[in-house]
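User: My instructor asked us to take a sequence, write out its structure as tokens, and then describe one feature of it. I'm not sure where to start. Here is the sequence I was given:
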Amino acid sequence: MTGKITRRQALKRLGGATLFGAGVAGGAFAGQIIGAEPAVAGEGETYAPGGHSGHGVPAGPAERRLSGGLPAGAAAGPYSGEFSPPEWMKGAELDHVTVPPPPSRQAVRELEMTVVEAPLQVSRSHTVDAWMYNGTAPGPTIRATEGELLRIRFRNFTGHDHNLHFHGRHSPFYDGWEPVPPGGETVYEIEAGPAGVHPYHCHSMPIDQHIARGLYGVFIVDPPGGRPEAHEIVLVLAGWDPEERGYNQLYAWNGIAGFYDKFPIRIPAGEPVRAYVVNATEYDPVASFHLHAETFKVYPAGIGEVPAFEHDVVQFGQMDRAILEFTLSERGRYMFHPHQHSIAMRGAMGWFAAI
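Assistant: Let's start with the prediction itself. The structure tokens for your sequence are:
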């Protein structure tokens, strides 16, 4: 009928990949990333330079803008422009953090954690002077079984004091608040617990700057009997302050702005999903996670054998977290983002592609 469009046409106008084309179908595991580029401009649309930070915006009769002055249209994508991932990045670039390590158990697990400083390109238009655990932001996902002992050799290769503080339950003698000087090292012994999902981060002063520059990560603790089988993913929300103004100018899931908008996370339709979601955002007192077209069961901090409630949006304070369990019942694209839209539209939009 006149005036109506199909779902496929709507997604094409949004600049996304075709739902059931070669760019989506064919994968079967959480964490495999769709390598689809945004579609070309639609018929009759032309794009001219200018607008927000010099990125392309619609011109002529098709001119339209989203709230917040962001460019809209297939050339930039509705949530792209300067908040899209670096152009050189490929779809598997964040698999190391999107997909958590498998469960395992050892009496004692020996780990190496270093702090390094290096430039990190976090979007098409922004590079930050990052501080990182083991060279990544977020740092490596650490996984253990409740009661397992972690013996972590920590070394500081930067010119600033740093350390390693875990949330959860452990001996206060290894709480990680003591500064480790440049060139220094120490050993932490952490007995994993309680079962759940917990962050770790730097606790050296000024703490907000150390976290905002990339010193955070995820600690998954499995119950002794394990968890039911599911496709597992890790999503860490954080902000970046590339101009060091004391507030976030862009946001990202797993360190790179706009990554899961360009490269949706592929999930088999009808199969259970477990998402470990952590809010590592500094400077913003609250954030959230919202899933379109579906609901999820919420385990606050991942603690407990039964969910506390079911919802489609959950609020997070700073360093708050949860395990979310859901199933995408039919094939299609399901958007996720914080419901603080000033955060969402500056790099924190993403998609699950149920295949």
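For the description part of your assignment, you could build on this observation: Residues 101-222 form a domain with the Immunoglobulin-like fold (CATH 2.60.40.420). Try explaining in your own words what that tells you about the chain.
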